Fold:
Amino acid sequence: MEDALAVLAVVAGHTLPEHELRLVGAYLAEYWREVEALRAVALPEEAEPVVQFHLERWD
Amino acid sequence: MGLNVRRSDWPWESLAAAAQAVKSREVSPVELVRACLERIERIDARLKAFRAVDAEAALDGARAAEADILRNRYRGPLHGIPIALKDNYDTRGLLTTNGSKVFAGRISDRDAGAWERLRSAGAVLLGKLGMHEVAWGVDVPPTRNPWDLRRTPGLSSGGAGAAVAAGLCFAALGTDTGGSIRIPAACCGVVGLKPTYGRVSRFGILPHSWSLDHAGPLARRVEDAAVVLGVIAGRDARDPSTAHVDVPDYSAGLRRSIAGLRVGVPSAHFFERITPGVEATVRAALQELERLGARLEEVSVPHIRYGLAAILTIELASAAAWYDRYLRAPDLRERFTPEVRLLLDAGRFVFAGDFLKAQQLRGVLLGELRAVFRAVDALVTPTMPLTAWLVDETTTRIGDQEEHVLHACWRYTYPFNLTGLPAVTVPCGFVEGLPVGLQIVGRPFEEGTILRIAHAYESSTPWHRMTPPDVASDGDVVPGEEHGPGQHSAPDRRPPT
Structure:
């Protein structure tokens, strides 16, 4: 996990001291376990992401 | 102005009753502010609800309000009323630290939109309230729960919940990203309202997660929350999420009967993994709603089980994006507590695909809730599956499952941050001397309906009249002290334990 994170960190331009990287890794492992359920669920194909931003008239 | 009520009793009055007394010149705003300041002085050393109190400015504001009222320039029900703000609302000339050393000494040159509206309505600011660092519920701030000083006041608007419950102010504004208005309100036995996303301006509030953050009031009575919402609601061009939707008179409809209203009860998720005492208390509240004429119906929101992953994803990524500049500055980065810094760092590793799927789930949940709301006028759930936990407690066991208290406490509230629907919590009883909250959820911009149901419930039950044991400045808990505010309210009672 730490190695994978170290690679990700370099890619993301976000280098962290090793001990902090380990803590982040431990948290992410927990978070990704939760996210796995979301990844696994087949949402309706027509469901679009909600983008909660709207514009008003410009005149 | 005359004074027929003891000064020490005023902080226990409802905002609406105090407003009526101010309007009729029975009491001066100066007396109200002094009463709150005296109470803060007496007990807040133990409660630690306030982060900063500006007594001089508050008294100046009260004197100005008094002068206006004596010149027949009464502005409405918040004129001269002492209130307080969570420490993430910008206030010109007063510290706004967002609960973090990163913002230590920060004095803004602007007022948050919601505070601007309260100030224009004549409200008097007592000070800023304690909160979790950057509104993230991982550290343990010093604020304590007035019902039991060993316990937390709830999530990040904990200072607001504690201050309102302990009679230190008449109302407070908090923010709610996953439950941080409703959870402290439930923990402290007061009313907390998260309005519809886009109902109240977030301008000038330090963000946590743009699309999840909501601003709203905490108060001791439903009517008081309705009064405050009526002032702070509305379009603000500086917050693009605010909607062009008319603001009704929320107070006017409160006393209408709820007979015939259809109330949905979503048992799946919302009555699962709940402590027996809280479940029994909330089920009794449902029976009371039925007795008042509401028609209860079982409803289902199937995809809600995936909500936790969605809100974590959006919250982590959004907070990491906004706080990026602080994380990148070495001197500021070190000022975050390690726990919050960890979460902000973790947010940089959220995958875009997961983020978009989380947003996709929001659309699915909105569709399911929209279908549910074709058949019902409101949903009713517990606000939390447990009561206020000990400050050093990190895990809790509900049934046969042990989990982090922070995961447990927001299980029933975060679905309505994901979907933006309005939700209010109202006290509905006690378990072992600790308050329990009933959550009522409505269609977008139908705060009037949920406030009406909450008011009907409040009016038929005694819970709102119960006050926490007093916390004297020497730390002694003084049980059973009468806080009866004389002619306006029924005598206060301690809750059953």
